[in-house]
Specification:
By secondary structure, the chain is an alpha/beta fold. It is built from 15 helices and 14 strands. The strands form 3 sheets. A 7-stranded mixed sheet has the order 7-6-8-9-10-13-14, with helices on both faces. The chain has a 5-stranded parallel sheet with strand order 2-1-3-4-5, with helices on both faces. The protein has a two-stranded antiparallel sheet with strand order 11-12. Strand 9, helix 11 and strand 10 form a beta-alpha-beta unit. The longest helix is centred in the first third of the chain and has 30 residues. InterPro entries: BCAA_transport, Leu-bd, Leu_Ile_Val-bd, Peripla_BP_I, TAT_signal.
C-alpha cells in the first residue's frame, strides 16, 4: 500500500464505538478533574487573598503565659477585623506563630522562616529584648515592618536604621526607668536606690536609663548588682546592696530570676521595698517567688480593672466567649500582653489600609498616616511619625502587684488586703 493510500485509510477509518458506560465513566472522571482543578483555584485564590501576620514569642517555658496573652490579644483583634470585612477590600488576616523559647538564636530562625517561607506582611515579637534586638536588623534589611507588643528595650525602636521598620505598642525602658525612680520616691520615700538587674542587653538598657534618671535628680545609685538569668541564689548581690545602704530596690528581670530575688530576700530576712519593671508579670511569678511575691510593685501599660470603655467591654466579652478559662478581668493575665497586642494589631490593620498594599515600605508609611484610633489602652492620635515609633508614653503606665495570683492595680490591691 502506498503512503497516500495508508494516509487515506487512516483518515477514513471508522472510530471504535464507545459504550455508554465507558462514556459515563469518562464524563465522571472529567467532572472530578474539573472539580479538583476548581477547588485548587479556589484554595489558591483564598491563600493569595489572605494576609499573613507573623508572631515570634515565647510559647513554652517560664514566660509562656505572656506569649499566650500576646496570641489572645492579636487573635481577638484579627477576629474583629475579619468579621468586619478584613482589609484592602475584603482580604482576611491570618496569624502564624513561632516559639522562640526566649532564645535570640531561635528567634532569628523563627523570624527568617516567617519572612522567607510564610511571606508574612508584618512580623510581631518578641517577648524578650535580646530576642527582639536580634530580629531588628533582619526586619530592617528585608523591609518587613516589625511590631513590638512587649519587649521594652529602648534600642529596639531607637535602632539607628534609616528607614526604620520597627514600631512598638509597649513600654519603653528609658521612660519606665524614670517612672520607677519617681514611684520609689513617692511611694516609699526612697533616698538610696539599689539596682538589681539581669545581666543581658535588657538589663544594660535599664541600667543606662535608671542612672540617667537619677542623675537628672542629682542622685546616684547606692550600688548596682547583676544576676544571670539562670541564677538560683542572689543573696551575695543583695548582701552588697544592703551593705551599701539601699533603702529600696529597683529590679529588672523576667519571671524566673525576679522570683529568685524575692526568695533570696526571704532567706536573708531583709524586708525592703521592690519597684520592678514588668518582667514578673510574664508568667508563673507567684508560684516561683512564694508568698512575698505580693511585695513587688511593677509597671503595667493597662489594667482591665477600674473604669470600662466600649472597647474594653467588647474585648472582655470576646475573650470570655473564645477562651473558657476567662470568666472576668481577674483571668486576663498578663493584661498588658493582651492589651498591647490587641491595640498593636488594630493599628497594624489601619496601617495596611492606609498603605493600600502589603508591600513593606508602603505599610511602614501607612503607620505614619494613622490619624486617630480609639483603642483599648487609650485613644491614639497620630501615634507614629518618622521620629516617633513608640505609641505609648509615661502617661499610659499603671502600677500593679500580685494579690492571690492576680495582677491588680496597687490602689485596689491595698483595698483588697485591708478588707481581709
Amino acid at each position: 500500500m502506498s503512503a497516500s493510500a495508508r494516509h487515506n485509510a487512516v483518515c477514513t477509518t471508522t472510530p471504535t464505538p464507545v459504550s455508554a458506560p465507558s462514556r459515563r465513566r469518562w464524563l465522571r472522571a472529567g467532572a472530578v478533574a474539573l472539580a479538583a482543578a476548581g477547588m485548587f483555584v479556589s484554595v489558591a485564590g483564598y491563600a493569595a487573598d489572605t494576609i499573613k501576620i507573623g508572631l515570634v514569642t515565647a510559647l513554652s517555658g517560664q514566660s509562656a503565659r505572656a506569649g499566650e496573652a500576646l496570641t489572645r490579644g492579636m487573635t481577638i483583634a484579627i477576629d474583629e477585623i475579619n468579621a468586619s470585612g478584613g482589609v484592602l477590600g475584603g482580604r482576611k488576616l491570618e496569624l502564624v506563630r513561632r516559639d522562640d523559647e526566649g532564645n535570640p538564636a531561635k528567634g532569628v530562625l523563627a523570624a527568617r522562616e516567617l519572612i522567607y517561607k510564610d511571606k508574612v506582611a508584618v512580623l510581631f515579637g518578641g517577648l524578650d529584648t535580646p530576642v527582639s534586638m536580634a530580629i531588628v536588623p533582619i526586619a530592617n534589611q528585608e523591609k518587613v515592618p516589625f511590631m513590638g507588643p512587649w519587649a521594652a528595650g529602648t534600642a529596639i525602636t531607637h535602632n539607628g536604621a534609616n528607614p526604620n521598620y520597627v514600631f512598638r505598642v509597649s513600654a519603653v525602658d528609658e521612660i519606665v526607668d524614670g517612672a520607677m525612680v519617681n514611684y520609689a520616691q513617692q511611694s516609699f520615700g526612697a533616698k538610696k536606690l539599689g539596682l538589681i538587674l539581669v545581666n543581658n542587653p535588657w538589663g544594660e538598657s535599664n541600667e543606662k536609663g535608671i542612672v540617667a534618671a537619677l542623675a537628672a535628680k542629682g542622685m546616684k545609685p547606692a550600688a548596682v548588682e547583676k544576676f544571670e538569668a539562670n541564677d538560683v541564689d542572689v543573696t551575695p548581690q543583695l548582701g552588697r546592696l544592703k551593705a551599701a545602704g539601699a533603702d529600696t530596690l529597683l529590679m529588672v528581670g523576667n519571671v524566673g530570676p525576679s522570683a529568685q530575688v524575692v526568695k533570696s530576700l526571704d532567706r536573708m530576712g531583709w524586708k525592703v521595698p521592690i519597684v520592678s519593671h514588668w518582667g514578673p508579670a510574664g508568667g508563673r511569678f507567684t508560684e516561683l517567688a512564694g508568698p512575698n511575691a505580693k511585695t513587688v510593685h511593677f509597671v503595667q501599660t493597662y489594667s482591665f480593672f477600674g473604669a470600662t470603655s466600649p472597647v474594653s467591654t467588647r474585648v472582655v466579652a470576646a475573650l470570655k466567649a473564645k477562651y473558657p478559662d476567662i470568666k472576668g478581668p481577674d483571668d486576663i493575665t498578663p493584661a498588658v500582653g493582651v492589651a498591647n497586642a490587641y491595640d498593636a494589631m488594630r493599628l497594624t490593620a489601619l496601617a495596611i489600609e492606609r498603605a493600600g498594599s502589603t508591600h513593606g515600605d508602603a505599610i511602614r508609611n501607612g503607620f505614619y498616616k494613622i490619624d486617630r484610633y480609639e483603642g483599648l489602652i487609650k485613644t491614639y492620635v497620630k501615634p507614629f511619625s518618622e521620629q516617633q515609633h513608640d505609641a505609648l508614653s509615661a502617661q499610659d503606665y499603671v502600677w500593679a502587684q500580685f494579690i492571690d495570683n492576680r495582677i491588680v492595680p496597687v490602689a485596689q490591691a491595698a483595698a483588697k488586703v485591708a478588707a481581709k
